[in-house]
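ok so for the tutorial part 2 we go from a plain amino acid sequence to predicted structure tokens. step 1 is just haveing the sequence, like this:
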Amino acid sequence: MTTEDNKEPAPIATKALLSRSTGEAAVPARAPRKTPMWQAMHASRYQRQDIIKKLMAKRERELICYVGGSGTEISRDDVLFLSDLLYNVPRGFPIDFLLHTNGGDPDAAQKLSQMIREVVGTSQLTVVVPDYAKSSGTLIALGADEVMMSDSSELGPIDPQIVVEDDGKRMVTSLHSYLSAYDEHEKALRANPEDPVAKLMLAKFDPAKVHHFRMAREQVRKIAETQLRAGMFRPPRMGNYTGVPRDLMKVEYYQSHGHVIGYRECKGLGLQVDYRPPGDEVWDLFWQLYCLQRLEITEKKVLFESSYACMAKE
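step 2 — the prediction. this is what the tokens look like for a chain of 314 residues:
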């Protein structure tokens, strides 16, 4: 044993200093640890990561999450973040997609769904709805093989929202309600060309907008049908892929954007539902994860999360 071997090990900082003087690369004596403050600041994220890993082990699937605040919408910008969540998922691997959203752009919703389906392929895609997935969120659910729901879960009517002006005021209204009102007044005027109320109300409508909104409504219906054919009703499964979108777009039945479509009604519509009662081990883990995620976000924030990534968009 040489004299050098009997020496006390030099501190890490001293080793780094010596290496700079000799030009040799520094070799840390040990890997740096997370500092106490860092761990405290990110404790909730570590807790969520643990739950995600437990769910992945139990379900033998990848788990990715999209949790949006009450003031957020599905948009094309979400593509960047979803791409990161899918980055390390092997092709053909089953996925659970935890989804909480008010809705948003139907075209963006279809794109997000198609991105996930490209990775999953013919394996199982389950959309997990702990609370609600409305409008375009429902479109995403239709593109899954099944939707996991419990007593707290709800989908909603496929009801795109549009901005219209009334007496100089901008307001958000239902596309279906707008067109339904136009059709109602047009029908009244055809029945009585002198109807003063119908004349007054029809004067408020822009014919170009009416035409544009009718095309948009048809596009949303086609997206819903495409989603069902790629998801719940894909061969060899059978299902009424034209009837379900028609039912979900009935303004005379679903008279509000927030209409609750629970798991029983979803089953009645013919959707593939994996119902999990409160107390179910898997569902309780999903619910615990969702509660922690809701505490993490604000009204204008969307949280994208997986076992290896955690990103927020505002």
